[in-house]
Amino acid sequence: MGCTSSDAHGHGGIFKLKKPAPEEGITHAGPWVKHVDDIKGYPVFPDEYKQSLLSKALTREVYEELKGKKDAQGVSFETCILSGVQNVDSGIGCYAGSHDSYTTFAPLFD
After folding, report:
1. Any idea what the CATH number is for the domain that residue 92 is in?
2. For 2-51, what is each residue's pLDDT tens digit?
3. Which long-range contacts link 11-18 to residues 24+ away (Cβ below 8 Å)?
4. Number of H helices and number of E strands within the chain?
5. Using CA atoms, how far apart are residues 96 and 49, in angstroms rounded to an integer?
6. In angstroms, how far is CA 27 from the centroid of its own chain?
7. Cβ-based neighbour number of residue 96 at 10 Å
8. Against a cut of 0.85, is the pTM above it?
9. What is the number of other CB atoms lying within 10 angstroms of the CB of residue 52?
10. What is the number of structural domains in the chain?
């Protein structure tokens, strides 16, 4: 399902993405997102990179419900989605930080 061609990594792909101008309430997904603190709003993926499971499952409603929450182990929702927000060519894009992440962030993982 994900982008697996070499073009996505070395012959154009994400390296040609340009960081969009900031917009209030959203985070433009891409390699410029370096830390969980850079996720300041609903992640919007570039049109050519909407194949990851994260980009499909993370609706604005799910984001609004889960933003700022942490699971019982202290793993934040933003930590679970950081990799996919950074790496827009990822096939998956979201990772449970602990076993409890699956229940705490069920609206995303289910």
Report:
1. 1.10.135.10
2. 222 223 444 355 557 888 888 899 999 999 999 999 999 999 999 888 88
3. 13/89, 14/49, 14/87, 14/88, 14/89, 17/46, 17/88
4. 5, 2
5. 22
6. 10
7. 17
8. no
9. 25
10. 1
Using alpha carbons only, what angle is made at residue 24 by residues 21 and 26, rounded to the nearest 5 degrees? 80
Tokens in use for 36?
């969980």
Q: Which helix (H) or strand (E) holds 86?
A: helix 77-86
Q: Are 97 and 75 in contact (CB under 8 A)?
A: yes
Strand, coil or helix: 42: strand
In a domain, 1, yes or no: no
Q: Write down the H helix ranges in 14-76.
A: 53-57, 60-66
Instruction: Give the domain range for residue 80.
Output: 6-17+25-109
Token pair of 23, please? 């917009």
pLDDT digits (tens, 9 = 90+) for 50-88: 888 999 999 999 999 999 999 999 999 999 999 999 999
Both tokens assigned to 80: 């679970």
